[in-house]
Design goal:
The complex is a heterodimer of chains A (about 110) and B (about 110). Chain A has about 110 residues and is mostly beta strands. Helices cover about 0% and strands about 50% of the residues of chain A. By secondary structure, chain B is mainly beta. Classes of the chains: A mainly beta (about 110), B mainly beta (about 110).
Chain lengths: ~110, ~110
């Protein structure tokens, strides 16, 4: 069975600094997708970034980038130039060809002024 | 940008009552999902729906739950006899495939 683990329940960062959130996963499949979702206090699930396992290049979306290490089954999220609006719960998630998303436990990120 | 719409945003119900949570997925999406998030916990998969039938369900999705796509646009989750532990945020999501999901804004269900 696939699992997703986020080992950092809480993190904090100063505004304008860089922070990295960790995620590891376990699967026997070779083709799959990895996601980071942001959940602000409104509890809406907002897609931050997506990575396809067969692509070696790390995905980047503006200030958000990932470090995808397929052999190590690691998928960390780097947030550069942190902003107050980045304060939220961040969930790492996995999907295979079967379709459903499997989520990690979440990391609560606080950006401090 | 296309959206997944969920109604109501908040529902309060008495224990033992039936509730129906409604979702309008994105029109050209083929896969539909319900997820649940108990306050402070992770998001849990309940059920997936494809081609007018359940394609997968979790252990949580027992006989008190059912899903339906009654009219080709709405996608509903029914909880037959609610329990206190059903209090949670329920998210609907839709996708074209396994590489992109759009979530609705959720329905907060409170069972009293």
């Amino acid at each position: 069975a696939q699992t997703v683990t986020q080992s950092q329940p809480e993190m904090s960062v100063q505004e304008a600094e860089t922070v990295t959130l960790s995620c590891t996963y376990d699967t026997s499949e070779s083709n799959y997708y990895l996601f980071w979702y942001k959940q602000p206090p409104s509890r809406q699930m907002i897609l931050v970034i997506r990575q396809e396992a067969y692509k070696q290049q790390n995905a980047t979306e503006n200030r958000f980038s990932v470090n995808f290490q397929k052999a190590a089954k690691s998928f960390s999220l780097k947030i550069s130039d942190s902003q107050l609006g980045d304060t939220a719960m961040y969930f790492c998630a996995f999907s295979s060809q079967g379709g459903k998303l499997i989520f990690g436990q979440g990391t609560e990120l606080s950006v401090k002024p | 940008e296309p959206e997944v719409t969920q109604t109501p945003s908040h529902q309060v119900t008495q224990m033992g009552q039936e509730v129906i949570l409604r979702c309008v997925p994105i029109s050209n999406h083929l896969y539909f999902y319900w997820y649940r998030q108990i306050l402070g916990q992770k998001v849990e998969f309940l059920v997936s729906f494809y081609n007018n039938e359940i394609s997968e369900k979790s252990e949580i999705f027992d006989d008190q739950f059912s899903v339906e796509r009654p009219d080709g646009s709405n996608f509903t989750l029914k909880i037959r006899s609610t329990k206190l532990e059903d209090s949670a945020m329920y998210f609907c999501a839709s996708s074209e495939g396994p590489d992109g999901y759009t979530f609705g804004s959720g329905t907060r269900l409170t069972v009293v």
